Amino acid sequence: MNNKPIDVARLGTIRCVVAPEPRTTPEGETRRDREGNPLWITGLSVRQAEGRRTDVVHVVTSGQPQGLTEGSEVRVTNLWANDWAVDGRNGTTYRADALSPMSGTGSGPASASSTAGPRGKSAGGDS
């Protein structure tokens, strides 16, 4: 399945709703990326730039995002979506190069780096 880049500048306000946690297997083992770095998962609410609709997505990063607290506005760098299907189940996994708190008042949408490149497969499906 293909990785798809997401233009976060078009998403509107992004806030942390579940603080970063280690991403684990069903057996409780910490999941790791291809380089051996631990994976972290963070719940983000995304309010569309126009309208009242809000969605919650769980974004995986390599390494622990620093300085994020529940309710804080978040800057997302290089967000990618990957659709998956395993044993009759399917979903979408979201990955980002980095998550960080917005600096200053956080009055604008989160920005993305313009140097997004192709991403490898994530280390497993949703858990």
Structure, explained:
With 127 residues, this protein is mainly β. The protein has one domain: OB fold (Dihydrolipoamide Acetyltransferase, E2P) (Beta Barrel), CATH 2.40.50.140. Helices cover 0% and strands 46% of the residues. The chain has a 6-stranded mixed β-sheet with strand order 1-5-6-4-3-2, with no helix packed on it. Strand 5 and strand 6 form a beta hairpin. It is globular, with a radius of gyration of 14 Å. The two termini are 18 Å apart.
Elements, N to C (H/E)? EEEEEE
- Biggest β-sheet: strands ordered side by side in the sheet: 1-5-6-4-3-2
Mean pLDDT value: 84
Largest sheet: 6 strands, mixed
Count of the domains: 1
**How many strands appear in the DSSP assignment?**
6
The percent range for helix content is under 10%
- CATH homologous superfamily (4th level) name: Nucleic acid-binding proteins
Segments where pLDDT lies below 50 for 5+ residues?
105-127
Q: Number of helix segments?
A: 0
Name of the CATH first level: Mainly Beta
CATH architecture: Beta Barrel
CATH topology: OB fold (Dihydrolipoamide Acetyltransferase, E2P)
Q: Can you give keywords for this protein?
A:
127 residues, mainly beta, OB fold (Dihydrolipoamide Acetyltransferase, E2P), globular, disordered C terminus
Write the layout of secondary structure elements.
Elements: E1 3-6, E2 13-22, E3 39-47, E4 54-62, E5 74-86, E6 89-101
Parallel strand pairs: 4-6
Antiparallel strand pairs: 1-5, 2-3, 3-4, 5-6
